[in-house]
Amino acid sequence: MGTSDCFDSPQGRRIVYHKSEGKGPWIVFLGGLKSDMEGTKAVFLEAWAKAQGRAFLRFDYSGHGESSGTFEEGCIGDWYEDTVAAVSALTQGPIVPVGSSMGGWQALLLAKDMPERIHGLVTVAAAPDFTEDGYWANFTDAQKQALEEVGHVELPSDYMEPYIISKRMIEDGRNQLVLRAPLDLPFPVRCLQGTADAAVSTETALRLMDHATCDDMRLTLVKDADHRFSDGSCLQMIEDAVVDVLGGL
């Protein structure tokens, strides 16, 4: 669905994307760690946007999906460069980022750097600062030692093969943190979070709510929804949140 193509980012990475032209603001889906643009939420939103005649973009970060590079060599900053490159090259005017898990962190970085382009923001199980607060803070001494000596650690995943977490990912993540300094979100924000999410806790969602400065920010906790947040009722909630922040446009 939409136009499948690729472009070379300013950093020389080949980024593969699907883009559907339509009326703005652009809906930009930002996926999670080791996910790709063929995920249920991304494809669902694209179909909805196309049916509504709305502009929509989904893409693969480098080291993810069909884009160039390997996951093990990437980091939050690299993937944010990809996000900025895709938004700058492929969209015009206001955007509504829809960030899932790590994509929520990416969306908040966009909010810090280009608030003038953001019409509204939707997060799904947002995972800001997870390299520091989720990984580093919970690493054992042995894992921290392995990170120094070997350069990476393996973490089990409920969804796929183990994650390879590199020393570079941890160190770069410290340059991308959004919950340590003021976070001004001068546009409507809707956050969705499942209570059965084993990857991102409701505490993280509440911490984001408490930390951000925003006049129109709402958090919806969904009982028994997991990290995928992809069943029919969850997808409808994502659609409703996007419609809400669009505000009738």
Detailed description of the structure:
The chain has 249 residues and is an alpha/beta fold. It has a single domain, classed as Alpha/Beta hydrolase fold, catalytic domain (Rossmann fold, 3-Layer(aba) Sandwich). 35% of the residues lie in helices and 24% in strands. It is built from 8 helices and 12 strands. The chain has helices at 40-52, 76-90, 102-113, 130-135, 141-149, 167-173, 202-211, 232-246; strands spanning 3-8, 14-20, 23-30, 54-59, 95-100, 121-124, 152-155, 163-166, 183-184, 189-194, 212-213, 217-222. The strands form 3 sheets. It has an 8-stranded mixed β-sheet with strand order 1-2-4-3-5-6-10-12, sandwiched between helices. Helix 1 (40-52) links the parallel strand 3 and strand 4 (54-59). The chain starts with a strand and ends with a helix.
